[in-house]
Design goal:
By secondary structure, this protein is of the alpha+beta class. The N terminus is likely disordered.
């Protein structure tokens, strides 16, 4: 599988030293949306703002790739990213979607010399890039920062373990229903027909997330539509009966 271009060719990448007061204000606002960095003291936050960079990635670009040296972590400012792992020539597994305020690449400050996964921009993504060496120093100096980062990493590990258990023990319909509910929670817009998922997911993207083939996802979505649990509006999904979809998660 041909992988997307890496972060070395980003659009409008800022310099690590700042870029003016307006950019520093923007970086501080983004960092404060993240619970881990929000735990820092005023002085430590000022250092992160000063030494970080505001970077932009075009759609389908990689913020970082698996096996690249882990030189930085990211806090998403805007846009949506997809965290994936590649397995073999034609196999890609979606681990998670990350949006504004969320961390990316945190494993590189937890003992890993390289990134364990790849992060791809689903649309134009802006992010604050923080040097890994700076984060490592903050972990040594700030207990609250360290605890919150450990909590995030622990929660993400539990999410992956739950996904693995679902893959081994539950049906495709059940896993698809859970995906739809999660999408509705994160991107849902209530309307007269039910809950509109405000972002578009291709059948292949759904398949790579729930561990199924694209063909199986297409068939299962079609069955949900026939049962009037789901509508498709310009490639966006509408859950017409959230309670009925929730009952499928078993």
């Amino acid at each position: 599988m041909e992988r997307p271009p890496t972060s070395k060719r980003t659009e409008g990448q800022g310099r690590a030293g700042g870029g003016g007061s307006e950019q520093e204000v923007r970086k501080r606002q983004v960092l404060l949306r993240n619970a881990v960095f929000a735990a820092l003291s005023v002085e430590a936050m000022a250092e992160v703002v000063r030494k970080s960079a505001l970077v932009r990635f075009a759609r389908r670009r990689a913020l970082y790739e698996a096996d690249e040296p882990g030189q930085a972590i990211f806090v998403v400012a805007s846009g949506r990213t997809r965290v994936v792992r590649y397995g073999g020539v034609n196999r890609v597994v979606t681990l998670a979607y990350r949006g504004p305020g969320e961390l990316l690449g945190e494993s590189c400050v937890a003992g890993a010399d390289t990134h364990e996964d790849s992060a791809l921009a689903q649309d134009t993504v802006e992010a604050v890039m923080i040097p890994a060496r700076l984060v490592a120093r903050l972990l040594d100096a700030h207990t609250g920062f360290c605890r919150r980062l450990l909590a995030v990493m622990g929660e993400r590990r539990r999410e992956i373990e739950a996904r693995l258990q679902a893959l081994l023990t539950r049906s495709v319909e059940s896993r698809l229903a859970e995906f739809l509910l999660d999408a509705a929670t994160h991107y849902g817009i209530p309307e007269s027909r039910g809950v509109l998922v405000g972002v578009k997911f291709t059948h292949q993207e759904v398949a790579s997330y729930i561990g199924a083939t694209r063909e199986t996802v297409t068939v299962t979505l079609g069955d949900l539509k026939r049962r009037e649990l789901l509508l498709v509006d310009h490639r966006r999904l509408v859950l017409t009966d959230v309670d009925a979809v929730r009952a499928l998660v078993r």
